[in-house]
Specification:
Layout lengths: L10 H6 L15 E2 L18 H11 L18 H11 L6 H11 L3 H16 L3 H7 L12 H13 L5 H12 L10 H9 L5 H13 L3 H8 L4 H15 L12 H17 L1 H15 L3 H16 L6 H7 L7 H13 L3 H9 L3 H4 L2 H13 L3 H11 L5 H10 L3 E2 L9 H8 L2 H11 L3 H12 L4 H13 L4 H6 L4 H4 L2 H4 L5 H11 L3 H11 L20 H11 L12 H18 L4 H10 L1 H10 L5 H6 L4 H22 L2 E2 L1 H4 L8 E2 L1 E3 L1 H6 L9
Parallel strand pairs: 2-5
Antiparallel strand pairs: 1-5, 3-4
Helix pairs in contact: 2-3, 3-5, 4-5, 5-6, 6-7, 7-8, 7-9, 10-11, 11-12, 12-13, 13-14, 13-15, 14-15, 15-16, 15-17, 16-17, 17-18, 18-20, 20-21, 20-22, 21-22, 23-26, 24-25, 30-33, 31-37, 32-33, 33-34, 34-35, 34-37
């Protein structure tokens, strides 16, 4: 069934939604209220294509045996017909001849469907070693400008070699792939590497270069493969190095005292430390003394012992963190040192850990906020207020918390450029965008994204924004999230980045369950970006990513009929069950939304463990010390999104400090756009597709 056009919300609701632009300001301009327009600019209405059901049927038929293109002659000139042809060719790819392939590429090679076919055709030609056909279709990059993967790059080397083109450039290209990674390369690379070796192109130096890279990646099998062809004495040493990566052993104590020996021994001990931190730590001194480890070598091992201890807040975490040489610290370990001290409520150690961070990391709103919190605890109110003011310039969780500490309004500088109907109409005529929107409507998401990327590769910033506005008219909301990460200004397009759909259902079910509707909207934004057909690897489904088992249980508790897992793709059903489940979690965890959010993401067992580890800890510190990175960032993200959806729905917002504790009747917060924030606002973390 085709998605319904975006329904218009009731006029009163539209008038309540805040999406205004904050006017461009200069350093001399005072803070301005983040005022909202009288009405939300509705996304452009989608074009209704009556032939899309017919295209869908043709695609379904093309993917089955017995497809007769003549039965679909009526849509042969449709913009999406190239994908029908692609589907038919892909199904029979091993029977497609070079003439058919070249004819299709001649017509469609400059379209995403042609590029998709080129990839499967190249793979098929390589399988049957039809190297002339392969090279006739070969291009070194795909339409998005990305290099071909190693599988096809090595197939191209095979083609050139088989056709007598293994010249000096061929050698350089083969050596580049050999050097490209310390990880295993596809089987297609074996033949060109064998030729390269036979021609003398794999010198001992090149072999050792790959052995070293493989050791750094903890890949002993790759080390052994790269070592074949070394002189006998070097081969024995390389294999012994690989054996140490497999299983730390005392033969390494007699290795030559070279930089390579030291590094590889430290890589082997670091690999052991991930699984057995105590064993690696205990064995480190004898290897360090025998081989003359540098601080960097020791740090490589101690880094891993500390990291894999602190990830579970092992009793040895603090000691192991302090044992890591400062030269081995990176941003990841710096933040874990601060987090570990917080988990023990060692506030002085946590403050010291933050102050050891580099300037860039320390200036992030998260760490400005916690440095302020810890300074305040230490009695340094002036430093705390200075840091709170800096952090409060950011429209994110820790920026909002900082504003609460100061009793200040929230910083928000939304941008909604003037309407540009003529420019939008020009963008809407782009053939790739037309195809992307059509494919999205018939639920061919992967193909739609290929067409979308093709269109955006030619668009400037304004055209890209207009394309996103058009996509939102088709309820394709995630394009704003995944396509607006290029400039700080784009992060201010909140009207695009925070869509609001199914508003009436969200409000109805939130009221029924006694939950803030901004929280429900934020959960949907975090879980699926308002995609009703979203499905996770764990089989969570629909807008609120409800597991079928959870859906069945909640439906039973509500006395509702359970329509099976597929019913979770119905938006109303998903919101009904997802919102009720949030209510159940809220009741289960003492009315504390931050516990409910963590449980919603991670499940009950990890949540129970975190609660038992740190009972009574203040919510901001408890959230920061969640050991799962995904859940820690999820809770902070949903809380920030809740503030932004509160603003969208009401123009002001509940304090996030009250919201995370489940207080819903407190004083609400206004928004302002300081002059400095309008031009230098730090965005929420970028999201990836």
């Amino acid at each position: 069934m085709l998605p319904r056009p975006l329904p218009l919300l009731a006029a009163a609701l539209i008038a309540a939604i805040a999406t205004t632009a904050c006017a461009q300001t200069t350093a001399s301009t005072p803070a301005q209220p983040a005022a909202r327009p009288p009405a939300l600019r509705a996304p452009p209405a989608p074009n209704v294509d009556p032939q899309l059901p017919r295209v869908r049927a043709a695609l379904d038929a093309a993917e089955r045996a017995g497809f007769d293109a003549g039965q679909y002659a009526d849509i042969a000139r449709h913009p999406l017909y190239g994908w029908v042809e692609y589907a038919a060719l892909r199904r029979t790819i091993d029977n497609v001849n070079d003439g058919q392939a070249q004819e299709f590429l001649a017509r469609r090679g400059n379209e995403a469907s042609g590029e998709a076919f080129r990839e499967v055709w190249l793979a098929a030609a390589a399988r049957r070693e039809d190297w002339n056909a392969f090279l006739a279709a070969w291009t070194p990059k795909n339409r998005a400008g990305k290099d071909r993967g190693a599988q096809l790059r090595c197939a191209e080397l095979n083609a050139r070699q088989a056709l007598g083109r293994a010249d000096a450039q061929w050698t350089r290209d083969a050596q580049a792939i050999w050097r490209s990674s310390g990880k295993s390369l596809p089987d297609a690379c074996d033949a060109p590497f064998a030729v390269l070796a036979a021609q003398g192109g794999l010198t001992p130096e090149l072999r050792w270069e790959r052995i070293d890279a493989a050791a750094a990646e903890w890949q002993p099998a790759v080390m052994r493969a790269a070592a074949r062809g070394l002189p006998a004495d070097q081969l024995a040493q390389a294999n012994d190095y690989a054996a140490f990566l497999d299983n730390v052993n005392e033969r390494a104590l007699a290795w030559p005292k070279t930089e390579r020996s030291r590094k590889i021994a430290s890589f082997g001990l670091a690999k052991l430390a991930k699984a057995q931190p105590a064993s690696a730590e205990a064995q480190l001194p004898k290897y360090a003394n025998a081989l003359g480890f540098s601080d960097e070598d020791r740090g490589r091992v101690l880094y891993q012992t500390a990291l894999w201890s602190v990830a579970s807040y092992d009793a040895e975490s603090a000691r192991r963190l302090n044992a890591v040489p400062e030269v081995a610290y990176d941003e990841r370990l710096h933040e874990w040192r601060a987090r570990e001290a917080m988990s023990r409520s060692d506030w002085n150690a946590a403050l010291a850990a933050i102050r050891k961070m580099g300037a860039k990391q320390r200036s992030e709103s998260r760490w400005e906020y916690f440095e302020a919190r810890l300074s305040e605890r230490a009695g340094d109110k002036a430093t705390a207020n200075r840091l709170y003011r800096e952090a409060a310039k950011n429209a994110d969780f820790h920026g909002f918390l900082s504003a609460d500490k100061l009793g200040a309004p929230y910083t928000l500088c939304p941008l909604q450029p003037a309407d540009a109907p003529a420019a939008r109409a020009q963008v809407a005529r782009d053939p790739a965008l037309i195809r992307a929107l059509g494919l999205f409507q018939i639920e061919r998401a992967a193909w739609a994204i290929r067409e979308w990327d093709d269109a955006l590769s030619r668009f400037d910033d304004t055209q890209r924004r207009l394309a996103i506005e058009i996509a939102q008219g088709y309820n394709w909301f995630d394009r704003a999230v995944f396509s607006l990460n290029k400039t700080p200004q784009e992060q201010r397009l909140y009207y695009l980045r925070f869509p609001l759909h199914h508003g009436e259902t969200i409000r109805r079910e939130s009221l029924k369950n006694g939950i803030d509707p901004a929280w429900v909207a934020a959960e949907i934004r975090a879980e699926s970006i308002f995609n009703p057909t979203a499905r996770s690897g764990a089989n969570a489904m629909g807008l609120m990513q409800v597991l079928p088992g959870t859906g069945a249980q909640v439906a039973k508790s509500l006395g509702l009929p359970w329509g099976g897992a597929a019913s979770l793709y119905d938006s109303d059903t998903n919101i009904v069950l997802g919102t009720a489940y949030l209510r159940q979690l809220l009741d289960k965890y003492g009315g504390q939304p931050y516990f409910a959010m963590a449980g919603y993401n991670a499940g009950p067992a990890p949540l129970n463990r975190w609660q038992s580890q740190r009972p009574g800890m203040e919510p901001d510190f408890w959230i920061e010390t969640i050991s799962y990175k995904e859940t820690r960032e999820y809770v902070a993200r949903v809380l920030a999104f809740s503030v932004l959806y509160d603003w969208r729905m009401n123009g002001d917002a509940l304090n996030v400090s009250d919201r995370l504790r489940g207080v819903t009747d407190a004083k609400r917060k206004s928004f302002v756009c300081p002059a400095t924030a309008a031009t230098a606002s730090a965005p929420l973390p970028a999201e990836t597709e």
